[in-house]
Amino acid sequence: MKKILLPFLALLLTFCGCKSHINDKTNFDSIDEHMEFRKMGDLEVGIISIRGTSFAKMDSTESRQFMDSVLRKGVNYIDLCGADTTALNNVALALKGRRNQMMIQGPLGNCWKDSKHTRPRNAADCQADLEKLLARIGTGYLNVGMLENINSKAEWQKLMKSSYMKYLDQLKEEGKIKRLGLVCSNVDAAYAALQSGIIEVLQFQVNPNKDLIPADFDTEDSTAVAELLATADTMRTRLYEYCKEYNIAIVIVEKESGKTDKFSRMEQMHFALTRPGVVSILSNASTMEDFSRDLHYLSASDEEKDFTLELIQPEPDEEEITSDN
Fold first, then answer.
1. Who contacts 236 (Cβ-Cβ below 8 Å, separation ≥6)?
2. Exposure string (b/e) for 122-139, b if CB count within 10 Å is 16 or more?
3. What is the mean pLDDT of each run of 10 residues along the chain (325 residues)?
4. pLDDT computed for residue 114 by the predictor
5. Four-point Cα dihedral 138, 141, 144, 147, nearest 10
6. Which residues lie closer than 8 Å to 92 by C-beta, 6 or more apart?
7. Which of 25, 26, 27, 210 has its CA 20 to 30 A from that of 198?
8. Rounded CA gap, 242 and 236, in Å?
9. Cα–chain-centroid distance for residue 320?
10. How far apart are CA 166 and CA 122, in angstroms?
11. DSSP states of 269-299 as a string?
12. What does residue 282 show for φ and ψ, rounded to 5 degrees?
């Protein structure tokens, strides 16, 4: 019996040691968190997604390990806009054999030329670049094709009158893009595009510092804070409501917290994910450790996520700071 059990126990110990090593490398695989999903048309998208640009900082092995881990956590959406050749090659290797597990948002109207990102809005140039992208990542289509950096109403109106729109219609007819999206940071331009009825996904900048607090607002006045939260009705807020009403999904790029930010990472994420129409946050994490911080949102306490607390906590005045030192 001992002769039988000893090899078995040795094998079991070896397996446990390997498993521990794997968890050390992936870092967040052992965290018991469950992805939340939201509707993007007929798709179910995880509220935390990833960006292809992050893969430029990894090698092929790290890319595969990172993709293994995020897929196990329920991540199913990736943004390839702005990703360079190195990043795209790493994404392609990481997704090889499992393209169907990840929905892809990719660029339209842009191309890489002489190692620079350009916006020719030229069907011939852009078609060649799109075909290269699809071939590189091993797929015949993008779940969402994104028109990038249209940041004025005039620019959108000019595009609508151009022959380039016929090319976009052709891409949808051929099934090379399933949905048409827009990357935009200007409210007027976004409204003009959305009212055309052809945009189904909007990538927009959602930020409590811009959306919630006027520059001259006194955050020490708790009564004023309560009124602000109850009546905040800006053009940006109405844009989110419009997206919700017409089933236009909003995806946002995570804003990195800086020293001057009033809101923490969890508070900023919660603010974004509680705006009408928002489906997913595109994490900027390029390491497993950074991504684990974003995953923490899935199990964070209400207090950690409550951005309204920051509005009623007065900033220390200069005299207090000086006296402490």
1. 187, 206, 210, 211
2. bbebbbebbeebbeebeb
3. 43 35 37 81 95 93 94 95 91 93 88 62 78 89 91 89 88 95 91 94 85 59 62 77 96 70 87 95 89 92 84 50 42
4. 62
5. 90
6. 136, 137, 138
7. 210
8. 10
9. 39
10. 11
11. HHHHHTSTTEEEEEE---SHHHHHHHHGGGG
12. -90, 105
Q: What one-letter code names the amino acid at 140?
A: G
pLDDT for 286 equals 83
142: three-class secondary structure by DSSP:
strand
We find that the CATH architecture of domain 35-312 is Alpha-Beta Barrel (3.20)
Provide the token pair at 259: 């020293």
C-alpha of 76 from chain center: 11
d(CA 292, CA 297): 9
In whole angstroms, what is the distance from residue 91 CA to residue 324 CA?
50
Q: Say how far apart CA 175 and CA 178 lie, in whole Å.
A: 6
d(CA 198, CA 159): 13
Closest CA to 103 of 117, 91, 119, 87: 91
